[in-house]
């Protein structure tokens, strides 16, 4: 007689159930996409709580993005109800490490109100150090050095642990010295960067066994999602925090390891059995997410990788739509194709019910690809959300406001001081600011302290001193106010007193938008008890700020899509040089090419019912047209899982050899022919480490490509209609770009494909 299962286990397969029930001792769930790894983790939390094995705050559960953490909390809440609220230690590596660091900040020379620097601050700080040290900033950019520092930190390396040779490009040990200078400066500023959060944790936990002991007692169960993407310092952190009961459960998929470029070590998975002898390894093979064709396409693609553990995957969702592969003329046509397809699905097709906008997602390789889609959505009024995109908190006015708040929260924060001391203009010139910064550096104190001292003396000329005295007077008033006023009230007072609001009001072009954004900032602060909590939130929120949860199309990078699923997924830009990225082809050899392929695998496996891949024949990179070659990944898709249509005459060579039923037409892919310079700079300075996605920046293209001729043969003076700007007369023609004098909006430069003869 079959045992009666409690509700929690209903519907789980045998292996999933084993992974949930085996709560004592180390467990590794190694399984492909969509097999329920994340579901196992949430059910496991529910099981631990349900059995009374631990209280909610005694479970440490780490994920990679804020969105994933939020989803996990919600899923658990559905299973266990209100007690999910007590899961204080469910979050990203960064957020949990920050909590721990605040408690013991003094042990690493910080105060508990330390600031977490963003990229801009980090680079500005390095710039100052480079200037001081006389480094040639044309040869070594502060930005690329910031990247180097992050790489060291990802590997758990403090300056004293770096072996000779690393950072050699800065001249022997110079790199290490600069790194040390940077760390010293951070301490004076009472600040740390993202990498420091974990690094300082490691320092504290290794040097203070008594503290480690308290965490060992506290964290009875540890759970980790996306284990394949942990870097060395995250790995060490987890090892340290695991107590002798070793109740550690990691889930991951080696085929989805996509952060090698940021120091992730897929080897961490392979080492698991060795690190935790007796560990139970559980494999899940049934995919519950995707249809047969989607899974078949993904499996066929990933087969081309050599470095794999190898897994079986099957689904009971037989049949379904084949993966669509669409060749198009150019980027605009691609955006048009995708947007119109979405509209069609939104209305509902003959076979299918209407799709919600939020059922559909576009996953791009690099964020610059988003612009064409965004423009199209605006034009067609399709609601959309950029996930993890150019974010609200990155706008200049928001950064200014936050700099004011940061300075009030932590007056030693020189970077905040530098940002706002003359915004709005107070007549404190650049020269004065530089002088203050220099003074502070020499004295080894913060600028605020230096200013406070200086204005007591006669060292500054009156025209510099008067505005500084005024600023300090305002500042001490805000400081007083911050002790008991609500954060949003404080913000309002600061922006009013400082003249910041007035400055924006005076700006007739975009002042209103900025004022609206600042208002929105005030709204977002209302949810926080105090300024410190709010600022912490701001520095940690790395994704999804604009996901309003409403019914809108989702637009994001492939990296940001990890762990998510959508009924319909669009995968545009499958072209050599975009995907795989030029950098991966030029520099990284097989290793990074395989990482690109894993990223493609992640992309396809996000789809539940429909996956639509596209590539174009022509693309504009920094204003120049280039010919594109379809991605090798297109060729690698098994023909039986794919349905291809093309405007460009391209037929896949891969499919030819697979006995393609299509005739070979004009276009022959030949990757080796494209031996030109990269479309993206190999410059790692373009990589933003803080973000959970690579930011590929197109650099100016190598060869002047001729302007694409206008396909429509427009003539000067012709009257035309544009979908967005209405009627107008053509005043200039340059290839396929037209300058049109529109009746309502004046001269605009537009692409001819958006224009029709009126
Ligand atoms: P990824 O590798 O992409 O992160 P995953 O292994 O974490 O995938 P989940 O997101 O947990 O997979 O699950 C994929 C989908 O399958 C989800 O919609 C989940 O609810 C569903 N699912 C998982 N297990 C079952 C099951 N036993 N019965 C029905 N649906 C399931
Ligand atoms: Mg998952």
TrEMBL record:
A GO CC annotation given for this chain: cytosol
Pfam families attached to this UniProt entry: UvrD-helicase, UvrD_C
UvrD-like helicase C-terminal domain boundaries: 292-563
Record keywords, A-Z: ATP-binding, DNA-binding, Helicase, Hydrolase, Isomerase, Nucleotide-binding
Catalytic activity from the UniProt record: ATP + H2O = ADP + phosphate + H(+); Couples ATP hydrolysis with the unwinding of duplex DNA by translocating in the 3'-5' direction
Root EC class: isomerase
Bilayer-crossing regions: none
UniProt GO molecular function: 3'-5' DNA helicase activity; ATP binding; ATP hydrolysis activity; DNA binding
EC number in record: 5.6.2.4
Gene3D superfamilies: 1.10.10.160, P-loop containing nucleotide triphosphate hydrolases, PCRA, domain 4
GO biological process: recombinational repair; response to radiation
SUPFAM superfamilies assigned to the protein according to its UniProt record, in alphabetical order: P-loop containing nucleoside triphosphate hydrolases (SSF52540)
Domain (UvrD-like helicase ATP-binding) ranges: 10-291
Binding site for ATP: 31-38
Key word Isomerase present: yes
Protein purpose: Has both ATPase and helicase activities. Unwinds DNA duplexes with 3' to 5' polarity with respect to the bound strand and initiates unwinding most effectively when a single-stranded region is present. Involved in the post-incision events of nucleotide excision repair and methyl-directed mismatch repair.
UniProt record similarity statement: Belongs to the helicase family. UvrD subfamily.
Protein name (Swiss-Prot/TrEMBL): DNA 3'-5' helicase
């Amino acid at each position: 007689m079959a045992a009666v299962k409690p509700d929690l286990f209903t519907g789980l397969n045998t292996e999933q159930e084993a992974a949930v029930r085996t709560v004592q001792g180390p467990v590794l769930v190694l399984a492909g996409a969509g097999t329920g790894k994340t579901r196992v983790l949430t059910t496991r939390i529910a099981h631990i709580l349900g059995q009374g094995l631990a209280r909610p705050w005694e479970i440490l559960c780490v994920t990679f993005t804020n969105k994933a953490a939020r989803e996990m909390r919600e899923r658990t809440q559905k299973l266990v109800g209100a007690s999910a609220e007590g899961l204080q230690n469910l979050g990203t590596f960064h957020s949990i490490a920050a909590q721990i660091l605040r408690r013991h900040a003094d042990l690493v020379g910080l105060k508990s109100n330390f600031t977490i620097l963003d990229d801009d601050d980090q680079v500005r700080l390095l710039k100052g150090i480079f200037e001081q040290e006389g480094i040639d900033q044309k040869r070594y950019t502060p930005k690329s050095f910031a990247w180097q520092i992050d790489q060291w930190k990802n590997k758990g390396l403090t300056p004293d642990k770096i072996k000779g040779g690393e950072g050699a490009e800065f001249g022997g040990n110079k790199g290490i010295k600069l790194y040390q200078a940077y760390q010293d400066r951070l301490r004076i500023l009472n600040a740390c960067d993202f990498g420091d959060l974990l690094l300082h944790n490691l320092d504290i936990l290794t040097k203070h066994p008594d503290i480690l002991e308290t965490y060992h007692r506290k964290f009875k169960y540890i759970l980790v999602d996306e284990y394949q993407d942990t870097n060395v310092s995250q790995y060490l952190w987890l090892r340290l925090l695991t107590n002798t009961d070793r109740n550690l459960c990691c889930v991951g998929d080696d085929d989805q390891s996509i952060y090698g470029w940021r120091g992730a070590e897929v080897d961490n998975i392979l080492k698991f059995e060795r690190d935790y002898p007796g560990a139970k390894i559980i494999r899940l093979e049934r995919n519950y997410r995707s249809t047969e064709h989607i899974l078949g396409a993904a499996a066929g693609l990933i087969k081309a990788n050599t470095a794999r553990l190898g897994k079986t995957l099957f689904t009971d969702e037989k049949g379904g739509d084949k993966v669509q592969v669409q060749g198009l003329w150019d980027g605009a046509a691609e955006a048009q194709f995708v947007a119109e397809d979405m509209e069609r699905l939104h209305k509902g097709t003959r076979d299918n019910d209407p799709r919600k906008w939020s059922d559909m997602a576009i996953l791009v390789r690099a964020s610059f690809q988003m612009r064409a889609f965004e423009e199209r959505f605006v034009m067609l009024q399709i609601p959309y959300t950029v996930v993890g995109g150019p974010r609200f908190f990155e706008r200049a006015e928001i950064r200014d406001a936050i700099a004011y708040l940061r300075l009030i929260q932590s007056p030693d924060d020189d970077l905040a001081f530098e940002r706002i001391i003359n915004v709005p203009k107070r007549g404190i010139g650049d020269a004065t600011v530089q002088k203050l910064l220099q003074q502070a550096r020499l004295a080894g104190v913060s600028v605020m302290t230096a200013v406070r001292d200086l204005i007591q003396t006669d060292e500054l000329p009156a025209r510099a001193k008067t505005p500084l005295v005024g600023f300090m007077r305002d500042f001490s008033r805000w400081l007083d106010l911050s002790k008991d006023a609500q954060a949003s009230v404080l913000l309002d007072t600061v922006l009013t007193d400082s003249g910041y609001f007035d400055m924006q009001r005076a700006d007739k072009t975009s002042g209103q938008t900025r004022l609206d954004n600042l208002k929105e900032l005030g709204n977002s602060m209302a949810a926080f008890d105090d300024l410190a909590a709010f600022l912490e939130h701001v520095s940690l929120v790395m994704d999804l700020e604009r996901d309003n949860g409403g019914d809108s199309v989702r637009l994001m990078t492939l990296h940001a899509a990890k762990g998510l699923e959508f009924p319909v997924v669009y995968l545009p830009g499958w072209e050599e040089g975009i995907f795989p990225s030029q950098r991966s082809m030029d520099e990284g050899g097989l290793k990074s090419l395989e990482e690109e392929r894993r990223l493609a695998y992640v992309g396809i496996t996000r789809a539940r019912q429909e996956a639509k891949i596209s590539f174009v024949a022509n693309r504009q990179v920094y204003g120049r047209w280039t010919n594109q070659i379809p991605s090798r990944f297109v060729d690698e898709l098994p023909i039986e899982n794919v349905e291809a249509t093309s405007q460009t005459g391209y037929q896949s060579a891969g499919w030819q050899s697979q006995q393609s039923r299509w005739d070979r037409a004009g276009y022959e892919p030949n990757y080796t022919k494209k031996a030109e310079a990269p479309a993206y700079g190999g410059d790692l300075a373009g990589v933003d480490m803080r973000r959970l996605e690579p930011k590929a920046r197109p650099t100016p293209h190598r060869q002047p490509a001729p302007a694409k001729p206008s396909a429509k043969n427009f003539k000067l003076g012709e009257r035309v209609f544009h979908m967005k700007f209405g009627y107008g007369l053509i005043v200039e023609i340059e290839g396929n770009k037209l300058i049109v004098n529109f009746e309502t909006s004046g001269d605009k430069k537009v692409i001819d494909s958006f224009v029709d003869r009126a």
